[in-house]
Structure formats: structure tokens, C-alpha cells
Amino acid sequence: MKPAQFEYFDPGTLDEALKLLRDHGDDAKVLAGGQSLVPLMNFRLARPKVIVDVNKIPGLDYVRDVDGMIHIGALTRQRTVETSSVIKGKCPLLTEATYWVGHLAIRTRGTVGGTIAHADPAAEYPCVLSALGGQVVVKGPAGERVLTADDFFVTFLTTALQPTEMVTEVRFPTVPPEAGWAFVEFSRRHGDFAIVGVAAMVQLDKQRKCTDARIALCGVGGTPFKARSAEAILKGTEVTDKVIQAAAEKVGGEVEPEGDLHGSAEYRKHLAKVLTGRTLRKALEKAGKVG
Amino acid sequence: MTTGTATKQKRQLRTISMTINGVEYEGACEARKLLVDFIREDLGLTGTHVGCEHGICGACTIFLNGQTVRSCLMFAVQADGQNLVTVEGLAKEGKLHPLQEAFWEHHGLQCGFCTPGMLIGALDFLSTNSDPTEDEIRVGISGNLCRCTGYHNIVKAIKAAAPVIKQRGTIF
Predict the structure, then answer these.
(1) What are A251-279's pLDDT values in tens digits?
(2) In chain A, is it the N or the C terminus that has fewer CB atoms within a 10 Å radius of its CB?
(3) B26 and B47, same domain (yes or no)
(4) CA-based angle A256:A167:A38, to the nearest 5?
């Protein structure tokens, strides 16, 4: 199958792109990395009448450390994130998650803004954004707005983005140097869509008591699952194996995944429990080891 | 009338040019023509293959400006003015690339369908890791599916070629 015909525009500025979205509304789709959109178009599951190719827009490819948050331009390629020393230093959870994003060739084109805007429930970046409590900056005819990850992800492949808006920046909270973190994913082949994945960050005080825990899962529902109850189990306690097990079981009990070709609902619930335990153990190994 | 103009724009052939393996090519195509189809059909470079058309199998993998991309997930018009390397560009003046030699030595191909993408993918992987372990190679080639070989000899070939390529100082 090949894509259906479409009108193609490659605007040179953000304003031009936004004008095109205004003019064409629901008829238009933004083309950034294309790693999610073009497969859909190749199978004609998506037949946008208008393509707005934003790859030529300057000034949307950057990584900046700003007041405890890493600001990443929407057009920043995942491959850039993979090798960014700023991100490796300040938000290594994102670097680790990138290892699981598709394959090298996918990451060359795939963008940070794109994977967030596409909001595939199995995707790694929305999971990390949700876990850390990040933000999405969106621009449209009414100007700019900043949404929390919780508000941005609505359901399967659906976000709070209006057809006339574009993601311009994604903001990830930094990971304190003494915090522990890990991203663990399960799929049949490395680089496949996650069946289930877990992102976790844990902070301990000098007595190894947990002062902060941030956990989210992908692949267990329409949006990333922020494991608030599991976080609450960890916070304020000395994190022993028993505590980890309790948190993992809590997650396994709470998630309500749908079954599909790649994994039944029961299997995903089981994976959610096992991988949460595994991820927390990995994160704790790192916690408190400075430098 | 909007409909008339829209249809005209959709069917419009855009003239594009690109450098592939050091040679300038020019052609004209609709915006919806995939880069892999443009390279194969319009330019006659049929070394790059079409497999799954959704980015998973890796048969269409080529170099764009020094990094690999899935040419089935790009429109040809997006490669206008860019620099590409395809499998046809690996051998130089009739001499096989060390990786191709290694695939030959170690029987790293049978039907050959995955091979162009596998070679290109492996080279990009080696540019990120010039001295990989076998496990690292297996992860490194996970973006290229092979239905014939079971990957065993592909991994052997890459392991054997890695030091030769490292010595040369370039993956090309």
C-alpha cells in the first residue's frame, strides 16, 4: 500500500505552520519525524488531506537546562537525546529510556515533540514525562499554553492538543544526582513496542528512608499510568524488599490494561507487577551513590 | 475553486535533487512518493529494498546525511538537497567494503533480501560502538529482520569486520 494523495506544505517558520493548521483544521496533520504517522499513511489507516511538514522550521531543536527542568525543543531528534551529555547528567532516566525507543534509524528521525504528541500508550517518553511530572508547551492561535503531563495525555493516541496547535517544547524535571532511577521494558525483540515498561526515580535520605518516589508505566492503559499508590507506599519508609514487593503488587492490582495480539490483560497485569519490582530494585541500587 | 486547486496540488510533480553515493541525481515526483520508491523506481537504485513499509523490518535502511533512516518512512521530497548513501555506495572502485567481505567470508546472507539494510544498519551501529561484544551486536542489529540466516553468521561477520573498520577510521 502507498499513501493516499495529499497536499504538501513545508513551512519555513512556526507562524507559517500554525497558519496552515488554522486554515486547514482537521484536514491537516503535522509531519515531524514521521516514524508513527507515515506507517499509518502507508497502510492508509490515516489519510490526511494536508501534510504540514515542520522539519524545516528553525529554532525547535535544542536541549536546555533551565531552573531544575530540561527544556527540549519539539523537533529535537531522539538520537540527539540519546547522546546528549546534558541529559545524561541531569535527566539520565530519559537517556536510559531512549535506549528502548525503536532502533537507531527510527531515532535519527523521530522527535521528542512527535512521540509526546502521538501519545502511543506503549511509548517510552510519555511514560518518563508522566513519571517525573513534566510539562508540554503547546502553541496555537490563542498563543502559548503549558500543560502538565497528567493534563496532556487524555487516552489512546489522544492528547489535549487542538488541531490548530503544535507541541513546541517538552520539559522534563531533572533527576537529583543522589537519586536512583531505572527504566525497564519488556518486548519480544529489542526495539519492538513495549508490552509493558516502567520508569522510576527514587530518592533516599541519609538513613536510606525514601523521601521521593516517582513511578509510571506504559502499555497498561490508554495513557501512561502514574503509580501514585505505589509511590505512597514507598515514601517515608525504609525501602526493603518487602516494601518493593508491596508496591509492585499494588501496581499489578491497580492497572486495568486491555489485552491484544501482543499480550493478554492478565499477562500485562503480571508484567506490570514483576517489572515494577525489577525497576524499583534497579533504581534503589543506584540511589545514594553520588558521582 | 478549493477542490480543484487542492487536487492540482496533490498531483503536482515536484522537482527534487539529491546526492547519492557521491553522484547528483534529479527527478520529479508527487509529494506522497516514498523515498525508497523514488530511489528504486525513479533513480534505478534497486539495491535498497521495500519490506514492511512501516519501519520495522529495516530492509529500506539507508544513510541520510551520515545517519541511518528508514527510507520507507520518508517522502522523497523530504530528501531534496540532501546527501544519501545506499548499499550501492559501499564498494569502492570494484572493491568490496570490509563489511561486505566479512559477510561473504562468514556466509552472512542467503537470499540477500535483508542484506543491504543489514549492512547499512550495521555500519551505523559500528559508528556508535566500534568494538562491540556479540550481545551488543545482537541488540545493534535488532532493527533489521532476517528470515533466512537466524542471524548467527551475520553477528560473526560484523564481529570480524569491526576491527578492520575501526582501523580504517571510517565506516564508509
Answers:
(1) 999 999 999 988 999 999 999 999 999 99
(2) C
(3) yes
(4) 75
Cβ–Cβ contact B124 with A under 8 A: yes
Report domain A7-53's class.
Answer: alpha beta
The DSSP output letter for B114 is: S
Which residue, among B109, B25, B66, B54, has the nearest Cα to A38 in the 3D structure?
B54
Degrees to nearest 5, angle at CA A159 with A94 and A75 = 50
As a whole number of angstroms, the distance between CA A166 and CA A30 comes to: 8
Retrieve residue A240's grid coordinates: 526493603
In a domain, B163, yes or no: yes
Other Cβ atoms less than 10 A from the Cβ of B1: the count is 6
A201-to-A91, A206, A285 alpha-carbon distances in Å: 10, 17, 11
Q: Residue B29 is placed in which grid cell?
A: 515526483
> So what CATH class is A63-172?
alpha beta
pLDDT digits (tens, 9 = 90+) for A153-182: 999 999 999 999 999 999 999 999 999 999
Give residue B1's pLDDT.
44
Smallest CA–CA distance, residue B55 to chain A, in Å, is: 7
Contacts of residue A35, Cβ cutoff 8 Å, sequence gap at least 6 = A102, A106, A109, A110, A114, B55, B70, B73
Strand ranges, E, within chain B: 14-20, 23-29, 61-64, 67-70, 83-85
Nearest CA in chain A to B117: A105
The grid cell for B70 is 528508514
Using the structure block, give the residue that is written with the C-alpha cell 527504566: A183
Give the bridge partners for A159, in sequence order.
A153
B6 within a domain of the structure (yes/no)? no
Contact: A105, B37; criterion CB under 8 Å? no
> Which class for A225: exposed (0-12), middle (13-18), buried (19 or more C-beta within 10 A)?
buried
